[in-house]
Amino acid sequence: AQSVSQHNHHVILSEAASLELGCNYSYGGTVNLFWYVQYPGQHLQLLLKYFSGDPLVKGIKGFEAEFIKSKFSFNLRKPSVQWSDTAEYFCAVNAYGNNRLAFGKGNQVVVIP
Amino acid sequence: DGGITQSPKYLFRKEGQNVTLSCEQNLNHDAMYWYRQDPGQGLRLIYYSQIVNDFQKGDIAEGYSVSREKKESFPLTVTSAQKNPTAFYLCASSIPRDREVTDTQYFGPGTRLTVL
Fold first, then answer.
1. Contact call for residues B40 and B93 (beta carbons, < 8 A)
2. Residues B100, B87 contacting (CB under 8 angstroms)
3. pLDDT tens-place string over residues B68-105
4. Considering only residues 5 to 34 of chain A, which have any Cβ-Cβ distance to chain B shorter than 8 Å?
5. How many CB atoms are closer than 10 A to CB A58?
6. pLDDT single digits (tens) A51-94
7. How many CB pairs under 8 A join A and B?
8. Chain A (46-65) residues lying within 8 Å, Cβ to Cβ, of chain B
9. What is the CB neighbour count within 10 angstroms for residue B46?
10. From A106, which residue of chain B is nearest by alpha-carbon distance?
11. Residue ranges in chain A assigned as alpha helix (H)
12. Alpha helix segments (H runs only) across chain B
């Protein structure tokens, strides 16, 4: 079964700092990759996704993620965070062959103004 | 206004009672999913359905049951057999890219169930 690892569950940083959240998965075949975000009191929503093509994917609100197949990774980055980026971030993986997602445990990010 | 609705937002039940959580979508999506979210655990898949009248167990199906009689509805019943039912329950839907690959899942606002 596929599994997804997210490290550093709690991240606290100041506004304008750079953010990088790691995501590693344990499936050797073709995968589709997602980052979801859950702002306080809001629905879980898609931040960005990778299916094929350019491994550097740009999403909403200035976020980007890079798929590195050799490292089984799909790390999320933002060069300069804002207070409004305070949220919980989830990495999810869809292994080709089943149409379900496996989620990581999430990163709780708090941005201090 | 398209989307996924879950009701109620908060639900309280006594131990030993079955309870059914509602999930409705008007996105015309074929696939629907139920997840459980616990602090520090991420989202864990309970059940999913790719098409009407068909559903599969997820990773933590024990103590839960579902039905999919209509495309737009996928209710989840938390039975008395579920040992630790207090949690936040999320429903999602998607258009499967095909039988083997899922596309973006869209989530409802969730129902927070507390069993007393």
1. no
2. no
3. 999 999 999 999 888 899 999 999 999 865 655 667 89
4. 6, 9, 32, 34
5. 10
6. 989 999 999 999 999 999 999 999 999 999 999 999 999 999 98
7. 58
8. 46, 49
9. 26
10. B42
11. none
12. none
